[in-house]
Amino acid sequence: MGFATCDYRADIGVFGGSGFYDFGSNVESVNIETPYGAPSDKISLVEIFGKRVAFLPRHGKEHQFSPTNIPYRANLWAMKALGVKKIIGPCAAGSLQAEVKPGSFVICDQFVDRTKHRQDTFFQGPYVTHLSAAEPYCPKLRSLAYQCAQDLNIEVHPQGTMVVIEGPRFSTKAESQWFRQMGWTVVNMTGYPECYLARELEMCYVNISLITDYDAGIDGLAGAVVASDVIKIFQENNHKVKNLIYKMIEKINVEEDCGCLHVVDENRF
Q1: Sign of CA dihedral 143, 200, 115, 233
Q2: Which end of the chain is more exposed for a tag (fewer CB within 10 A), N or C?
C-alpha cells in the first residue's frame, strides 16, 4: 500500500475517546486527505518532550460519529501518512468484573469482536494478506503504559480482554452476564477495528481503558448504564488519562524497532 506525500510529520499518535476531545493549546490543526475519506476531525499537531504528537478525537470534537460510523480506516491511514509509528488509544469502558473498579485503568492485551457493520481491513484487493491477531496490542507499549501508570500511582490492571460491541446501545443484563461468565474484563464500542487497522499499517498500538461504570449493574454494584454518568466519570478522571499519556510520550523511544513494524512483510504470500 502506498501513501501520498504529506507536508506534516508526527512520531506518536493519540486517539481521544468519549469526553476527551482536545489535547491542550498551542496546537496546529491540519486536514489530512485519505483514500477512505476524511478522518473524524482535523488532526492537532503539537511538540511534547521533543517529539511530534498527532491527536485526533475518534468521535469528532462534537461527538458527531457513532461508534459504528467512526471513519476508522481514514483515521489510521492519516496517522500512517504523517509517519506515526506508535499509537496510544485511550477509551471509556465498562467493567465486567467486580474487582475492576470505576476510575481504574486496564491495559488490554486481548479483544473479542462482537461488531457487525464495520469496514475492518485495508486488504480488500488487489493485494490481500492475512495477519495474525493472536497478540493484537504492542507488548512493548503495553509494558510501558503499565509502568508509567504505576509511577503515577494510578490503579491499573496490566492485562484484560475487551469485548467490543456494535453500539450505540449499551448491553442488556443478559449480554453483560454472558460477557462476564466468559471471563472477559471490559466492554467497549470503539476498540475494534482501530487496533487491528493499526496492525495492518504496521504501527504499534496500545489500548488504555478507563473504567467508567459496572456494565449493566454486575453483582448488584450499580444500576443500568447511563451515558451521562459515563461521561461524568470520564471527565472526572481525564487528568489521569492525560498525565499517563504525557508520561508515556516522555518515555517512548520513537526510534525503537518492534515486531509490530514488520508484521505485514512477515506475512506476505
Answers
A1: positive
A2: C
DSSP 135-203: S-S-HHHHHHHHHHHHHTT--EES--EEEEE--SSPPPHHHHHHHHHTT--EEESSHHHHHHHHHHTT-
Given the C-alpha cell 443500568, which residue does it identify? 224
Q: Of the residues 11, 41, 113, 213, which is catalytic?
A: 213
Dump the DSSP string for 207-243: EEEEEEEEGGGGGGSS-S--HHHHHHHHHHTHHHHHH
Amino acid at 194: E
**Tens digits of per-residue pLDDT, 203-232?**
999 999 999 989 986 666 655 666 666 667
Spatial CA neighbour of 247 closest among 146, 115, 176: 146
Among residues 215, 219, 229, 257, which one is catalytic? 215
Q: Is 7 a catalytic residue?
A: no
Q: Would you give the DSSP letter of residue 42? A: P
Rounded distance between C-alpha atoms, residue 108 and residue 23, angstroms: 23
Using alpha carbons, select from 172, 204, 205, 212 the residue that is nearest to residue 188: 212
Percent of the chain with pLDDT strictly greater than 90:
77
Going by C-beta distance under 8 Å and a sequence separation of 6 or more, which residues neighbour residue 55? 13, 14, 15, 16, 22, 23, 27, 43, 44, 45, 46
At 108, the amino acid letter reads C
Question: Catalytic residue at 109?
Answer: no
Q: Which residue has the cell 483514500?
A: 35
Reported pTM: 0.92
Q: Which residues contact 252 (CB under 8 A, 6 or more apart)?
A: 11, 12, 51, 86, 141, 144
Instruction: Dump pLDDT digits (tens) for 93-102.
Output: 999 999 999 9
Show the domains of the chain with their CATH numbers.
12-267 (3.40.50.1580)
